[in-house]
């Protein structure tokens, strides 16, 4: 794209959400520019650190129905998106296994109650399978004899976050998006474009004061020979811990959940908790090699929901994906891209037209008009 041509869309922030939005808009034939303060690998995003589990039912224990429904719909969309990207991305739909140690057995009925209360019955039926005795080992041979009970949530998935970010960057290049990596955009000094979509995650805080960070810490280890076949969640009184197997015997072990925008390195306490959790799932993790200990902050709004806020003019801000970014991003990004394209046509020019759009949108409760509601 020539520098002289004003793009239809400027996407500001090219982490997970921004990449998906820009890629979709470019795929629809628009001229798109994308700006990110970090590199094409996405190493400055929360998305870079995330475990990328796509677990709407397991997350129903801590999330409301809207998030579960966005997650279920997005889980169906991911294979279609990945199939169109120019590089392969590890994607698995082999379920989640939930287990607990005897000392934490009080957590099990709480988890089950929350899932059953928050998730639609149609998702729980056949999607939440009780395991006892040898059934745990039948489902996950590496854990035979290690846990007396568990639940298999067979419909859940996961992907490789870093492969996805790289493949999306390649997809942006393929669709001729004008990418500006290592280019920070501060405050509302947005680049020139007909419509701007602000997807800066926690970097959008200067223009969105109620946004906050929730720190998460993860370990990446190399553990040949254990051969877990799906993410394993370990119920724990403080936060859900998981061990997610990626390709080539790499495991992501996470994640802490700590209020505050602290991006400092992983604490000794958290490292001990995470690595002990993995060791308690399978003692062979004792011989694993630590590849990385990472921390990042999840961009979070007060109600823990994502939000798409139109400023009443030419800017749409998309944020608040919290701990569910990968799980819900396809639907959130699709909603953003659809709205932005309608904005470009000039059909949404005032509050009435916005209300009309909102009432007809698939995920209408995601949309807000700036200053019209105080909650976001
Ligand atoms: C430890 C951890 C584990 C997680 N695990 C999971 C999981 O298992 N499943 C799941 O679904 N989700 C998970 N998440 C959540 C997920 O990572 C986030 O919800 C998601 O990354 C949010 O996407 P985003 O695009 O809004 O923000 P980000 O991915 O953070 O991207 C924001 C981008 O904006 C850029 N930016 C910021 N400021 C500026 C600026 N001034 N100018 C230009 N660019 C800027 C950044 O460089 C970044 O690339 C996890 C998160 C963490 C931290």
UniProtKB/TrEMBL annotation:
<keyword id="KW-0285">Flavoprotein</keyword>
<dbReference type="Pfam" id="PF01266">
    <property type="entry name" value="DAO"/>
</dbReference>
<dbReference type="InterPro" id="IPR036188">
    <property type="entry name" value="FAD/NAD-bd_sf"/>
</dbReference>
<keyword id="KW-0274">FAD</keyword>
<keyword id="KW-0560">Oxidoreductase</keyword>
<protein>
    <recommendedName>
        <fullName>D-amino-acid oxidase</fullName>
        <ecNumber>1.4.3.3</ecNumber>
    </recommendedName>
</protein>
<dbReference type="InterPro" id="IPR006076">
    <property type="entry name" value="FAD-dep_OxRdtase"/>
</dbReference>
<feature type="domain" description="FAD dependent oxidoreductase">
    <location>
        <begin position="8"/>
        <end position="337"/>
    </location>
</feature>
<comment type="similarity">
    <text>Belongs to the DAMOX/DASOX family.</text>
</comment>
<dbReference type="InterPro" id="IPR023209">
    <property type="entry name" value="DAO"/>
</dbReference>
């Amino acid at each position: 794209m020539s520098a002289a041509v004003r793009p239809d869309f400027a996407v500001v922030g090219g982490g997970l959400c921004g990449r998906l939005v820009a890629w979709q808009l470019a795929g629809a034939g628009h001229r798109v520019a994308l700006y990110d303060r970090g590199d094409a690998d996405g190493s400055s995003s929360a998305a870079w650190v995330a475990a990328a589990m796509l677990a709407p039912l397991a997350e129903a224990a801590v999330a409301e129905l809207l998030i579960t429904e966005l997650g279920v719909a997005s889980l169906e969309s991911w294979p279609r998106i990945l199939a169109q990207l120019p590089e392969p991305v590890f994607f698995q739909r082999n379920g989640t296994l939930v287990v607990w140690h005897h000392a934490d057995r009080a957590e099990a009925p709480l988890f089950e109650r929350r899932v059953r209360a928050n998730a639609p019955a149609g998702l729980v039926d056949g999607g939440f399978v009780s395991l006892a005795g040898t059934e745990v080992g039948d489902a996950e041979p590496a854990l035979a004899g290690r846990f007396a009970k568990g639940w298999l949530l067979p419909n859940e998935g996961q992907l490789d976050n870093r492969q996805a970010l790289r493949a999306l960057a390649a997809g942006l290049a393929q669709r001729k998006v004008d990418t500006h990596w290592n280019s920070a955009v501060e405050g509302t000094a947005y680049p020139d474009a007909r419509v701007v979509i602000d997807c800066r995650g926690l970097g959008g805080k200067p223009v969105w004061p109620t946004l906050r960070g929730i720190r998460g810490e993860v370990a990446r280890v190399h553990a040949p020979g254990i051969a877990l076949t799906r993410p394993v969640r370990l119920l724990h009184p403080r936060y859900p811990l998981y061990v997610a197997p990626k390709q080539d015997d790499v495991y992501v072990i996470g994640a802490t959940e700590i209020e505050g925008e602290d991006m400092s390195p992983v604490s000794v306490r958290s490292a001990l908790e995470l690595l002990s959790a993995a060791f308690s799932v399978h003692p062979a993790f004792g011989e694993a090699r630590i590849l990385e200990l990472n921390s990042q902050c999840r961009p979070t709004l007060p109600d823990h929901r994502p939000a798409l806020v139109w400023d009443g003019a030419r800017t749409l801000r998309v944020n608040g994906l919290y701990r569910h970014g990968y799980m819900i991003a396809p639907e959130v990004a699709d909603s953003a891209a659809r709205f932005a394209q309608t904005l470009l046509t000039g059909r949404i020019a005032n509050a009435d037209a916005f209300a009309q759009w909102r009432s007809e949108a698939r995920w209408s409760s995601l949309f807000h008009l700036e200053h019209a509601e105080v909650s976001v």
